[in-house]
Amino acid sequence: MPAFSAHAETIGVAATAENVFKPASVNVVTGDTVLWTNTGGIGHTVTSTSANWSKSDAIPAVGTSTSFKFEKAGRYTYHCANPAHPAMTGVVNVRDPKAPPRPTTPPPPPRPTPTGGASPPTATGSGTPPSSSPSETPSAGPSATPAVSGSPGVTPSPGVGPAESPSATVFLGEGGLRPLPPTGRNKGLPVLLALLLVGGVGSAELRALLANAPD
């Protein structure tokens, strides 16, 4: 694509026998003139197709030409009005050299690539730090049950004392109750007491039984 001209000049465009404008697009500045010349020997026209200019001139034979001086910046499109040349189109781009250039935004600087092929760390979206405490809740401690002295697993019944020795008996006589060793009279004492309570034995018979009891 040709560059914009630096000063006012005339730029030529050919209407060829191949039914094209050559070049199809030209860049000019305000004050420049474009000259269209028929070089193909077939009838053509230069007819504007944009509203910013009005032109419709025929160049019917080889060597005929038409021109237009562009005074305002803009984009001007045109075509050949011959119905047999529907693809014959062109454009003239006009720039005002006195207009300040449009500000351009510089591209962002390239992102630095980390050396060593290591990928930069990616921040997680949750933002929740990992828990440092284990998931299991420690027990408050084993429930201590005071151990009972003696045999393990045996709980003594309250109010129950040790069993009396089978050899200890109670002798009923003067001086109250006292433990005696298992003698002959002591062995017969429970029998005598049973006879006294059940059979109604009198005191005389009781004394006789006691007197005859073996030592």
Fold blueprint:
Layout: E1 10-15, E2 21-22, E3 25-29, E4 33-38, E5 44-48, E6 56-59, E7 65-69, E8 74-79, E9 89-95, E10 169-173, E11 176-180, H1 184-199, H2 203-212
Parallel strand pairs: 1-4, 3-9
Antiparallel strand pairs: 1-2, 4-7, 5-6, 5-8, 8-9, 10-11
Low-pLDDT segments, ≥5 res: 1-5, 138-142, 144-154, 156-171
Oligomer: single chain
Mean pLDDT: 73
Helix content: 10-25%
Q: What is the number of E strands? A: 11
- The CATH architecture category of the domain at 10-95 equals Sandwich
Q: Treating each run of at least 4 consecutive H or I residues as one helix, how many helices?
A: 2
Neighbour order of strands in the largest sheet: 3-9-8-5-6
Derived from helix and strand composition plus strand pairing, the structural class reads alpha+beta
Beta fraction: 25-35%
Instruction: Determine the N-to-C terminus distance.
Output: 154 Å
**CATH topology category name of the domain at 10-95:** Immunoglobulin-like
The level-1 CATH class of the domain at 10-95: Mainly Beta
Estimate the global geometry from the Cα principal axes: rod-shaped
- Rg to the nearest angstrom? 68 Å
What kind of sheet is the major sheet?
A: 5 strands, mixed
What is the CATH superfamily of the domain at 10-95? Answer: Cupredoxins -  blue copper proteins
Order of helices and strands: EEEEEEEEEEEHH
